[in-house]
Amino acid sequence: MKTVRLLCLLAACILAGCAPQHSGVTFTSSRQTEAIVQDFRHAYLDREPQGDYHILLVADAADEQPPAPIKGPIQPIANATPRRIMHIHVFWRPLRGLKSDNPSATNASIDFYVIGDRGEPGAKDVIHYQGTAFVALALTPTDIEAQIQNGLMVPRGGVGAMSDALGRCKVEGAVFPHRNRQRVRELLDEVRAAGNGGFTDETQARSVLR
After folding, report:
1. Residue 170: how many CB atoms within 10 A of its CB?
2. Strand pairing partners for 40?
């Protein structure tokens, strides 16, 4: 069942011995007895001219599986692990006096996509979660850290046979993106394309993924 498979894949991302400054996001859901920690090996950041920040986090099957010894010709392997992409949009102008210790404080939107292949060219199974959070950014010439606090995320839509495994959940974490405008734009294009499959029309998708 795809719900069980998705839970196992998300839970399997609790990795031992991770190198320092790996980006990690914790989902706490009433549907699950334990929190699920998603490790993102790829994290990118870009800043808009007006000051907003876009953070894109990516997790793939290859990030979670040790390389196996190759014997004989390389054969294609069916990939059942969904691709996970999180888009965090940090707004330049939060509310005046906003502080992270306020339970209702938010200055960022969150879109989280779980994208799986259906086994047909171009066909995708997609679950889209959306929410808000307070994101504290610490930027230096060499390092970037984003602390996600007071996050709340709910299922927004989906397409295909993949079932919602998280439901309404709390979100928190620490991420360490690298500045890379090109990768941010490529990933935003990818989630827009995936999002169109989960909505009734392109206009609605663009309103969510602006």
Report:
1. 16
2. 23
